[in-house]
Amino acid sequence: MSAVSSWQWSFDDDVAFWTRAGISQVGLSLRKCDDVGLDRAVARVVDAGLRVSNFVECGSDPKRWRAAADVL
Predict the structure, then answer these.
(1) DSSP 67
(2) ∠13-39-66 over CA atoms, to 5°?
């Protein structure tokens, strides 16, 4: 399930829903991860036993793609 499908929810709302719904493979929003802090987001994903298939929302400005790739 992609975090884009719940774009108005917070990162914590996404993880809570995925856990309740038994969803184990997800696409994360880099924006939402940044909102809570990347280290906290990684810890929450690991603790929830989620498998990450992709990241989205890395921005539409090609000048920023290298920085987004470095974060990933």
Answers:
(1) H
(2) 100
Measured between its terminal Cα atoms, the distance across the chain in Å is 19
Sign of CA dihedral 67, 70, 71, 72: positive
What does the alpha-carbon distance between residue 2 and residue 8 come to, in Å, rounded to a whole number? 12
Q: Is the pTM higher than 0.70?
A: yes
Query: CA-based angle 28:5:52, to the nearest 5?
Result: 25
Give, as one character, the DSSP assignment of residue 6: G
Give the pLDDT band of residue 59 (cuts 50, 70, 90).
low
Q: Name the H helices within 1-72.
A: 11-21, 30-36, 38-48, 62-71
User: Is residue 6 pLDDT above 90, yes or no?
Assistant: no
Q: What's the whole-number mean pLDDT along residues 54-71? A: 76
